[in-house]
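Risk register update: the risk of archive-format incompatibility is retired. Evidence:
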Amino acid sequence: MCPSEFSRIDLEVKQLRKMDHKKTTDEGKTDFKEKIDKQNEKFRSPGWRGLPSTSAFRAINFELYAKPNIMVMGPGTLFFLGCVGYIIYMRMNEDKNSYTAMNEDGTLTQRPRTSRWD
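Archived output:
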């Protein structure tokens, strides 16, 4: 940087210091905070909470408005994955040479699969 750039930066810093953004208004807030508050009023909160909805919709769709709870989510995910794993395990070990059939008296029995060609 050349010396002229340093003086320009110093000038900008001095001008910023002259801007007394710590002046208080009647309410006790600073002017700077008021500007930020006015800007924030223009924006809504993101997500489902910011949208207008009825209390019935909020009661029925509770999961959309509740904060995520890691203590519940962790074990729930593990149990779900365990169930999916068990289903996959049962399908892999399924005996394809037999089937369950209902007898005339209503009981279920395992019967071997036979070919119609035999």
